[in-house]
Write a structure and sequence with these properties.
alpha+beta; 19 helices
Length: 598
């Protein structure tokens, strides 16, 4: 055997394999560095942008997003001020006299200011004790400029949110979320309209209107740094500003700024730590105010908390508010009349089911039972209904579907909803035996599996006020260009499906009036306007401790309804005082006063 020929063949094969590997590496490098620089891999990663971002520090002066406004054009996001930007360049400043002068101009403690300057590692703005950027007057800005301190620059900045901003849960928040961008904004990512590091809407209106609010890019000041984060000499700070006559677009909500402010303040004073308030225009179904607790600071998001959730659009147990659905069903089906008598001795006799009133209500009409919220009467009434009727009338009153404004398709979206994260309601869970007597009587009083949202409850009452007319709820009226002209206007829309009959709605209104004049909400009888509505107390088990959800859903003035209000105080102690009734009265009195002024 010729060993030299064997070795030559081995060497040749090795060289061929090595050459093939080198060719693959060269082609791969060519692909990465030249061909697929801006859309690398299935994730469409912009390699140039990623490389630059590793050696660049910047301070955002304006996100470039469109503003969210109240119904009168008052900003709910984006308050422009002129502040003092501090760059790491200032760490080399040794002129202590000028630093002290700057501290005096800003009216802040000199020693604390020096500590801030010595410790700054990335661009930041000087803030006060309340967390807000210290705003400069024109004269103060001129004085700061005259000091000519390296790394200290007065700059105009528009912060998206304030620590105490209004309607925070409704507005939501923005964040950097590459995974969400890749999942929901793949087309925009491929087209270069956004990048993996763009700030996008993560909840609320910021998320549902993301495609309209995203704008044309942020305004920022940036500079380049070395591996240790120190500024590179010779490379000046660069201002990047986007100019466009028509963009960004603005979203004009139906919310009233002043009313929203008062509602949020009064919720806190009422001691509602978890819950919501929703105020609708009874005729247009526009949201005039929507507040949620616990408090939420969009500038400090804790991913382990859920305080950012808008509780007005999340489903919870409604308790006796759901008796409105049962009343609509038995009245419209002709099974019960308002003056029909029922007997309540306080106990149903089995299943451990009882009335809230010890000893019962005795002989009581159906209308009185609604006003007094008699559990026994409604259990007996619900058992008169044929199978499926509870779900049917829950659907007619809109408590099993999303009620916010939606359209399919809408611009480039398959489905667009104004309320991001809005829940649909539930009457029975999938595995529940719907014909079981014990289950039916619990369902009749809004317990067991029944779950609805406060927004659905408010819209249900608005439908009753409107004679059974079903409408979708709007929280945004227009989208506008930067020039102020209308880009898109959201018109009234019917809520799909069949509603209750006008006469049924009339009967329900009369019974809701009795709740205030003779029933469980007599404390509202002395309000400046006559009120009608329904109370609810849903018992829930919270980690073994007895808790309940306190509800009142109603309208005012009762003779000519203008407003529908739903208030819920969640997770309240069973022995605690009622928090929703006094708050409802306070809001109605405020609305009455506003009507008088106008």
């Amino acid at each position: 055997m010729d060993l030299s020929n064997t070795n030559k063949r081995r060497m040749f094969c090795s060289l061929v394999i090595l050459g093939f590997i080198m060719c693959c590496l060269i082609i791969r490098l060519l692909w990465i560095q030249i061909i697929s620089v801006h859309q690398f891999s299935a994730h469409s990663i912009n390699l140039v942008e990623e490389a630059v971002s590793q050696r660049k520090q910047e301070v955002i002066l304006h996100t470039g997003r469109g503003d969210i406004l109240d119904r009168n054009g008052t900003p709910l996001t984006g308050t422009p001020v002129k502040g003092v930007a501090v760059f790491p360049l200032v760490r080399g400043v040794t002129n202590q006299d000028k630093l002290e002068q700057l501290a005096n101009i800003l009216r802040i403690n000199h020693q604390k200011f020096i500590e801030l300057v010595d410790g700054v590692k990335e661009p930041t703005f000087i803030r006060g004790e309340n967390g807000r950027i210290l705003a400069l007057s024109d004269e103060e800005a001129r004085q700061v400029e005259e000091l000519a301190l390296p790394g200290i620059i007065p700059l105009p900045i528009t912060e998206r949110y304030q620590n105490d901003g209004l309607a925070a849960h409704l507005i939501g928040y923005i964040s950097q979320n590459p995974e969400l961008i890749e999942k929901e904004y793949a087309d925009e990512l491929r087209n270069g309209e956004i990048s993996r590091h763009s700030l996008i809407g993560a909840s609320g209106l910021e998320r549902s209107f993301q495609r309209f609010l995203q704008g044309v890019g942020p305004t920022s000041v940036s500079y380049f740094v070395d591996g240790r984060g120190n500024p590179l000499n010779g490379l000046k700070a660069r201002l990047i500003e986007q100019e466009n006559q028509f963009y960004p677009l603005s979203v004009v909500t139906t919310v009233d700024h002043d009313l929203q402010q008062k509602v949020e303040q009064w919720m806190g004073q009422a001691g509602i730590k978890q819950g919501s308030v929703t105020i609708l225009d009874a005729n247009t179904r526009e949201v005039l105010a929507m507040a949620s607790q616990p408090e939420f600071n969009p500038t400090k998001i804790d991913p382990n908390q859920s305080d950012w959730v808008n509780r007005a659009i999340k489903q919870i147990s409604p308790g006796s508010v759901f008796k409105t659905v049962i009343a609509a069903a038995v009245l419209e089906e002709g099974l019960v009349k308002p003056d029909d008598h029922f007997e309540c001795n306080g106990s149903y006799g089995k299943y451990g089911f009882s009335c809230w009133k010890e000893g019962g209500h005795g002989s009581i009409t159906f209308a009185e039972a609604f006003a007094e919220s008699c559990n026994i009467t409604f259990a007996k009434a619900a058992l008169k209904l044929p199978p499926g009727k509870i779900e049917e009338y829950a659907a007619k009153l809109g408590v099993t579907q999303r009620v916010g404004w939606e359209e399919s398709p809408f611009f480039k979206m398959d489905t667009f909803r104004q309320f991001s994260g809005e829940d649909a309601g539930q009457i029975f869970s999938p595995k529940t035996q719907k014909k079981d007597e014990g289950i039916i009587i619990q369902t009749a009083i809004g317990q067991r599996d029944v779950q609805i949202t406060p927004l659905q409850a408010a819209n249900m009452v608005a439908s009753i006020v409107g004679g059974g007319e079903r409408k979708e709820v709007r929280v945004v009226g227009d989208i506008r260009y930067k020039t102020g002209s209308v880009f898109y206007s959201f018109e009234d829309k019917e809520l799909p499906g069949e509603g209750i009959k006008p006469y049924t709605a009339y009967q329900l209104r009369k019974m809701m009036e009795l709740v205030v004049t003779d029933g469980t909400a007599k404390a509202l009888a002395e309000a400046d306007w006559q009120i009608a509505g329904k109370t609810g107390t849903a018992q829930i088990d919270s980690k073994g401790a007895g808790k309940n959800n306190q509800w009142f859903v109603g309208y005012a003035p009762s003779e000519s309804p203008k407003y529908v209000i739903a208030i819920v105080a969640e997770q309240e102690n069973l022995s605690g005082s009622n928090r929703v009734i006094p708050l409802f009265k306070r809001i109605v009195n405020e609305l009455a006063a506003l009507e008088e002024q106008n």
